């Protein structure tokens, strides 16, 4: 009788999980940049099928970068709380669904150094009019560098302008660079929803209880 009660509890738990988490697992597309040759750019940049290289040395005025990316006037100054002098940027347009994930690898390197004026050159990526920092001089230190992989999830479906940039602040004498590379994985990845997780746990517990019940029935015989 005890094992039968446990069985009923597990069946009730399973039906309850189905009721509250009826949605099936969804597929979120992972958008890996595979080729930069079709991108546009301003300033000092180089595009290939494997990577994009940008340098703030020889870049265009900050207002030109903002206009190119569709950003508001002085958006870069406000973002960094410093006067941005010049820089370089690239962009492309993509259409996504809600839940899609943009993924890319990048490296930031600077010839700049921190001083009392804090020449905080920085690199960034933009999604529409939204600016997102990648790295800056404060983070990497004098003449430093860093590399990482970044993912961005789109909450709303639509067509977006994706941009990457690197800029000089306060002066244009010592520059910084940004390299963006294609990410290693491609395709789509399943996004598990609560039904998947709870369903797996319920199924596992149900199997244990069923085996126990059969053993007890065999012992009675």
Task: Explain what this protein looks like in three dimensions.
- The protein is α+β, with helices and mostly antiparallel strands and 221 residues long.
- The protein folds into two domains: 2-25 and 192-220; 28-187, Jelly Rolls.
- Helix content is 29%, strand content 40%.
- The protein has five helices and 13 strands.
- It has helices spanning 2-20, 62-69, 75-80, 137-140, 194-220, and strands at residues 26-32, 40-42, 44-47, 51-55, 60-61, 84-96, 101-110, 122-127, 130-136, 145-153, 158-169, 176-181, 188-191.
- The strands form two sheets. Strands 1, 3, 4, 7, 10, 12 and 13 form a seven-stranded mixed sheet that branches.
- The longest helix is centred in the last third of the chain and has 27 residues, at 194-220.
- The radius of gyration is 26 Å and the shape is globular.
- The model is unreliable at 1-25 and 185-221 (pLDDT under 50).
CATH class of the largest domain: Mainly Beta
Ends apart, CA distance between termini? 16 Å
Structural class: alpha+beta
CATH topology of the largest domain: Jelly Rolls
Instruction: Tell me the major beta sheet.
Output: 7 strands, mixed
Please tell me the CATH architecture of the largest domain by its name.
Answer: Sandwich
**Which percent range fits the helix content?**
25-40%
